[in-house]
Protein backbone atom coordinates (compact mmCIF):
# COMPACT_ATOMS: atom_id res chain seq x y z
CA UNK A 1 0.00 0.00 0.00
CA UNK A 2 1.48 3.34 -1.13
CA UNK A 3 0.27 6.20 1.02
CA UNK A 4 0.93 9.83 0.15
CA UNK A 5 0.78 12.34 2.95
CA UNK A 6 -0.07 15.95 2.15
CA UNK A 7 0.93 17.77 5.33
CA UNK A 8 0.19 21.42 5.82
CA UNK A 9 -1.11 24.24 7.90
CA UNK A 10 -4.09 24.58 5.56
CA UNK A 11 -5.11 28.03 6.81
CA UNK A 12 -7.07 27.63 4.55
CA UNK A 13 -6.63 24.64 2.18
CA UNK A 14 -6.57 25.82 -1.48
CA UNK A 15 -6.38 24.45 -5.00
CA UNK A 16 -2.53 24.49 -4.97
CA UNK A 17 -2.68 21.79 -2.28
CA UNK A 18 -5.30 19.78 -4.21
CA UNK A 19 -3.32 19.87 -7.47
CA UNK A 20 -0.08 18.90 -5.70
CA UNK A 21 -1.79 15.88 -4.12
CA UNK A 22 -3.42 14.85 -7.39
CA UNK A 23 -0.12 15.17 -9.30
CA UNK A 24 1.63 12.92 -6.75
CA UNK A 25 -1.30 10.45 -6.69
CA UNK A 26 -1.37 10.19 -10.47
CA UNK A 27 2.38 10.19 -11.18
CA UNK A 28 3.37 7.62 -8.55
CA UNK A 29 0.17 5.54 -8.59
CA UNK A 30 -0.46 6.07 -4.90
CA UNK A 31 -3.30 4.08 -3.31
CA UNK A 32 -4.36 6.82 -0.89
CA UNK A 33 -3.48 10.41 -0.06
CA UNK A 34 -3.91 11.50 3.54
CA UNK A 35 -4.29 15.24 4.09
CA UNK A 36 -2.89 15.98 7.51
CA UNK A 37 -3.25 19.43 9.10
CA UNK A 38 -0.49 20.22 11.56
CA UNK A 39 -1.30 21.29 15.11
CA UNK A 40 1.56 23.78 15.46
CA UNK A 41 3.64 23.99 12.26
CA UNK A 42 7.36 23.64 13.12
CA UNK A 43 8.70 26.72 11.34
CA UNK A 44 5.80 29.16 11.50
CA UNK A 45 4.48 31.40 14.25
CA UNK A 46 1.42 29.13 14.33
CA UNK A 47 -1.81 29.11 12.41
CA UNK A 48 -4.37 31.83 12.95
CA UNK A 49 -7.31 29.46 12.70
CA UNK A 50 -7.89 26.65 15.23
CA UNK A 51 -6.91 23.10 14.32
CA UNK A 52 -10.48 21.78 14.37
CA UNK A 53 -11.59 24.43 11.85
CA UNK A 54 -8.62 23.75 9.55
CA UNK A 55 -9.34 20.02 9.81
CA UNK A 56 -12.99 20.59 8.90
CA UNK A 57 -11.97 22.59 5.81
CA UNK A 58 -9.67 19.71 4.79
CA UNK A 59 -12.55 17.24 5.25
CA UNK A 60 -14.74 19.40 2.99
CA UNK A 61 -11.96 19.58 0.38
CA UNK A 62 -11.36 15.82 0.09
CA UNK A 63 -15.00 14.72 0.06
CA UNK A 64 -15.35 14.25 -3.69
CA UNK A 65 -12.17 12.12 -4.15
CA UNK A 66 -12.45 8.44 -3.29
CA UNK A 67 -8.70 8.08 -2.56
CA UNK A 68 -8.24 11.28 -0.55
CA UNK A 69 -8.97 11.55 3.15
CA UNK A 70 -8.33 13.86 6.08
CA UNK A 71 -6.42 12.54 9.10
CA UNK A 72 -6.37 14.25 12.50
CA UNK A 73 -3.22 12.54 13.82
CA UNK A 74 -1.21 15.73 14.48
CA UNK A 75 -4.19 17.78 15.66
CA UNK A 76 -5.00 15.05 18.22
CA UNK A 77 -1.37 14.71 19.38
CA UNK A 78 -1.06 18.45 19.96
CA UNK A 79 2.21 20.32 20.44
CA UNK A 80 4.64 21.13 17.64
CA UNK A 81 3.99 18.86 14.63
CA UNK A 82 7.41 17.44 13.81
CA UNK A 83 7.11 15.14 10.82
CA UNK A 84 9.73 12.62 12.01
CA UNK A 85 7.62 11.94 15.10
CA UNK A 86 4.42 11.64 13.08
CA UNK A 87 5.98 9.20 10.61
CA UNK A 88 7.43 7.05 13.38
CA UNK A 89 3.94 6.79 14.84
CA UNK A 90 2.16 6.19 11.53
CA UNK A 91 4.67 3.48 10.54
CA UNK A 92 4.11 1.71 13.85
CA UNK A 93 0.34 1.78 13.17
CA UNK A 94 0.56 0.76 9.47
CA UNK A 95 3.53 -1.59 9.23
CA UNK A 96 3.02 -2.72 5.60
CA UNK A 97 2.67 0.76 4.11
CA UNK A 98 5.20 2.75 2.05
CA UNK A 99 4.95 6.45 2.85
CA UNK A 100 5.48 9.38 0.49
CA UNK A 101 5.40 12.97 1.77
CA UNK A 102 4.19 15.60 -0.70
CA UNK A 103 5.75 19.08 -0.50
CA UNK A 104 6.00 22.26 -2.55
CA UNK A 105 9.28 23.69 -3.83
CA UNK A 106 9.61 26.05 -0.84
CA UNK A 107 9.63 23.06 1.51
CA UNK A 108 11.98 21.00 -0.70
CA UNK A 109 14.62 23.72 -0.31
CA UNK A 110 13.96 23.85 3.44
CA UNK A 111 14.31 20.07 3.97
CA UNK A 112 17.87 20.23 5.39
CA UNK A 113 16.43 22.21 8.35
CA UNK A 114 13.72 19.71 9.27
CA UNK A 115 14.08 17.92 12.62
CA UNK A 116 15.87 14.55 12.32
CA UNK A 117 15.81 14.83 8.56
CA UNK A 118 18.32 11.99 8.03
CA UNK A 119 16.12 9.53 9.92
CA UNK A 120 12.97 10.85 8.22
CA UNK A 121 14.51 10.52 4.75
CA UNK A 122 15.22 6.85 5.45
CA UNK A 123 11.60 6.26 6.42
CA UNK A 124 9.90 7.84 3.41
CA UNK A 125 10.30 9.40 -0.03
CA UNK A 126 9.49 13.06 -0.60
CA UNK A 127 7.47 14.03 -3.66
CA UNK A 128 8.21 17.64 -4.62
CA UNK A 129 6.12 19.88 -6.86
CA UNK A 130 6.95 23.22 -8.48
CA UNK A 131 5.70 26.42 -6.93
CA UNK A 132 6.05 29.92 -8.37
CA UNK A 133 8.81 31.97 -6.81
CA UNK A 134 10.87 28.98 -5.66
CA UNK A 135 13.64 27.31 -7.63
CA UNK A 136 13.72 23.51 -7.32
CA UNK A 137 17.46 23.07 -6.82
CA UNK A 138 17.66 19.33 -6.08
CA UNK A 139 21.41 19.08 -6.67
CA UNK A 140 22.01 21.67 -3.94
CA UNK A 141 20.45 19.39 -1.34
CA UNK A 142 22.77 17.30 0.87
CA UNK A 143 23.84 14.05 -0.78
CA UNK A 144 21.74 11.86 1.54
CA UNK A 145 18.60 13.49 0.08
CA UNK A 146 19.48 13.06 -3.60
CA UNK A 147 17.67 9.76 -4.13
CA UNK A 148 14.97 10.54 -1.54
CA UNK A 149 13.21 13.39 -3.39
CA UNK A 150 11.20 12.63 -6.54
CA UNK A 151 9.28 15.20 -8.57
CA UNK A 152 5.69 15.30 -9.79
CA UNK A 153 4.58 17.68 -12.50
CA UNK A 154 1.60 19.90 -11.71
CA UNK A 155 0.23 22.99 -13.41
CA UNK A 156 1.96 25.79 -11.53
CA UNK A 157 -0.49 27.68 -9.33
CA UNK A 158 0.43 31.04 -7.88
CA UNK A 159 -1.80 30.76 -4.79
CA UNK A 160 -0.90 30.64 -1.11
CA UNK A 161 -3.00 30.59 2.05
CA UNK A 162 -1.45 33.96 2.97
CA UNK A 163 -2.68 35.43 -0.31
CA UNK A 164 -6.17 34.05 0.33
CA UNK A 165 -6.30 35.48 3.87
CA UNK A 166 -5.14 38.86 2.54
CA UNK A 167 -7.76 38.89 -0.21
CA UNK A 168 -10.50 38.10 2.28
CA UNK A 169 -9.27 40.83 4.64
CA UNK A 170 -9.35 43.31 1.75
CA UNK A 171 -12.93 42.33 0.90
CA UNK A 172 -12.08 40.45 -2.32
CA UNK A 173 -13.43 37.14 -3.59
CA UNK A 174 -11.55 33.85 -3.15
CA UNK A 175 -14.19 31.78 -4.95
CA UNK A 176 -12.50 29.06 -7.09
CA UNK A 177 -9.17 29.57 -5.32
CA UNK A 178 -10.39 27.05 -2.76
CA UNK A 179 -12.58 23.97 -3.45
CA UNK A 180 -16.29 24.88 -3.65
CA UNK A 181 -17.20 23.13 -0.41
CA UNK A 182 -14.38 24.97 1.39
CA UNK A 183 -15.63 28.27 -0.01
CA UNK A 184 -19.13 27.50 1.29
CA UNK A 185 -17.73 26.48 4.69
CA UNK A 186 -15.70 29.70 4.92
CA UNK A 187 -18.68 31.87 3.99
CA UNK A 188 -20.91 30.12 6.56
CA UNK A 189 -18.35 30.42 9.38
CA UNK A 190 -16.66 33.33 11.07
CA UNK A 191 -12.99 32.32 11.07
CA UNK A 192 -12.01 34.56 8.13
CA UNK A 193 -14.81 37.10 8.39
CA UNK A 194 -15.87 36.98 4.75
N1 LIG B 1 0.49 26.86 -4.80
C1 LIG B 1 1.17 25.79 -4.38
N2 LIG B 1 1.78 24.98 -5.26
C2 LIG B 1 2.49 23.90 -4.82
N3 LIG B 1 2.62 23.53 -3.52
C3 LIG B 1 2.02 24.29 -2.61
C4 LIG B 1 1.25 25.46 -2.97
N4 LIG B 1 0.77 26.02 -1.84
C5 LIG B 1 1.21 25.27 -0.82
N5 LIG B 1 1.97 24.23 -1.27
C6 LIG B 1 2.62 23.20 -0.45
O1 LIG B 1 1.64 22.63 0.40
C7 LIG B 1 2.20 22.31 1.68
C8 LIG B 1 1.38 22.96 2.80
O2 LIG B 1 1.40 24.35 2.60
P1 LIG B 1 0.72 25.40 3.60
O3 LIG B 1 -0.49 24.80 4.23
O4 LIG B 1 1.77 25.99 4.47
O5 LIG B 1 0.19 26.48 2.52
P2 LIG B 1 0.80 27.88 2.10
O6 LIG B 1 -0.05 28.36 0.98
O7 LIG B 1 2.27 27.76 1.86
O8 LIG B 1 0.51 28.71 3.44
P3 LIG B 1 1.00 30.15 3.96
O9 LIG B 1 0.83 31.14 2.83
O10 LIG B 1 0.08 30.42 5.11
O11 LIG B 1 2.45 29.98 4.36
C9 LIG B 1 3.65 22.79 1.63
O12 LIG B 1 4.47 21.68 1.31
C10 LIG B 1 3.67 23.79 0.50
O13 LIG B 1 4.93 23.88 -0.14
O1 LIG C 1 9.42 18.25 10.90
C1 LIG C 1 9.89 19.37 10.57
O2 LIG C 1 10.94 19.82 11.04
C2 LIG C 1 9.11 20.18 9.56
C3 LIG C 1 9.54 21.47 9.19
C4 LIG C 1 8.77 22.19 8.28
C5 LIG C 1 7.61 21.65 7.76
N1 LIG C 1 7.22 20.39 8.13
C6 LIG C 1 5.95 19.82 7.64
O3 LIG C 1 5.78 20.12 6.26
C7 LIG C 1 4.39 20.31 5.99
C8 LIG C 1 4.22 21.67 5.31
O4 LIG C 1 4.59 22.69 6.23
P1 LIG C 1 3.89 24.12 6.21
O5 LIG C 1 4.52 24.85 7.34
O6 LIG C 1 4.20 24.70 4.86
O7 LIG C 1 2.41 23.93 6.38
C9 LIG C 1 3.66 20.21 7.32
O8 LIG C 1 3.15 18.90 7.45
C10 LIG C 1 4.76 20.45 8.33
O9 LIG C 1 4.54 19.82 9.59
C11 LIG C 1 7.94 19.67 9.02
UniProtKB/TrEMBL annotation:
The keyword Transferase belongs to this UniProt entry's keyword annotation: yes
Biological source species: Paenibacillus enshidis
Entry function: Catalyzes the reversible adenylation of nicotinate mononucleotide (NaMN) to nicotinic acid adenine dinucleotide (NaAD).
Enzyme Commission code(s) on record: 2.7.7.18
SUPFAM superfamilies, A to Z: Nucleotidylyl transferase (SSF52374)
Reaction catalyzed: nicotinate beta-D-ribonucleotide + ATP + H(+) = deamido-NAD(+) + diphosphate
Stored Pfam families: CTP_transf_like
Matching HAMAP family: NaMN_adenylyltr
InterPro entries (UniProt xref): Cyt_trans-like (IPR004821), NadD/NMNAT (IPR005248), Rossmann-like_a/b/a_fold (IPR014729)
Keywords, comma-separated and alphabetical: ATP-binding, NAD, Nucleotide-binding, Nucleotidyltransferase, Pyridine nucleotide biosynthesis, Transferase
Family according to the record: Belongs to the NadD family.
Protein name stated in the entry: Probable nicotinate-nucleotide adenylyltransferase
Start and end residues of each Cytidyltransferase-like domain: 5-167
Pathway in which the depicted protein is active: Cofactor biosynthesis; NAD(+) biosynthesis; deamido-NAD(+) from nicotinate D-ribonucleotide: step 1/1
GO molecular function: nicotinate-nucleotide adenylyltransferase activity
Amino acid sequence: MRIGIMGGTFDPIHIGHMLAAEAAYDTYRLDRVWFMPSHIPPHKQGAGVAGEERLQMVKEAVQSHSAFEAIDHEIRRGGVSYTFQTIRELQALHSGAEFYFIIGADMVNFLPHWEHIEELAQRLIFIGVRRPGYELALDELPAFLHDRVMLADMPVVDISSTDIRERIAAGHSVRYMVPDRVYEYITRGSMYEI
